[in-house]
Amino acid sequence: MTDAGHKFKSDCPVIYQITVQGYLDKSRADWFDGMDIEPQVDADGRSVTKLTGKVVDQAALHGLLRKLYDLGLSLLSIKRNELD
After folding, report:
1. Range of the domain at 71
2. Does residue 25 register a pLDDT over 70?
3. Model-level pTM?
4. Which of 16, 29, 32, 69 is least surrounded by Cβ atoms within 10 Å, i.e. has the fewest?
């Protein structure tokens, strides 16, 4: 099975926006490779946090997701944006 449309290109900057359920303090930015951390309240009044920043490769993305898992934060969404 091939997935040629979703290959990670190391020469193209990639910005990810990861949304989790729960509160993550902005002071943890260093732990998350300098990603911007935005605690918010969603339309239903639940605490959510958006992390936005560059991710260098798939291993780095996996590491970020593992840290969120270790903190017990439920993943709500991941959005990938390639910069031209």
Report:
1. 27-84
2. yes
3. 0.81
4. 69
Phi/psi at 55 (5° precision): -125, 125
- Write the pLDDT tens digit of every residue in 34-69: 899 999 998 999 999 999 999 988 899 999 999 999
First to last CA, the chain: 28
Strand partners, 47: 41
Percent of the chain with pLDDT over 90: 60
Count of the separate structural domains present in the chain: 1
In-domain check, residue 13? no
- Whether 20 maps to a domain, the answer reads no
C-alpha 33/C-alpha 64 separation (Å) is 8
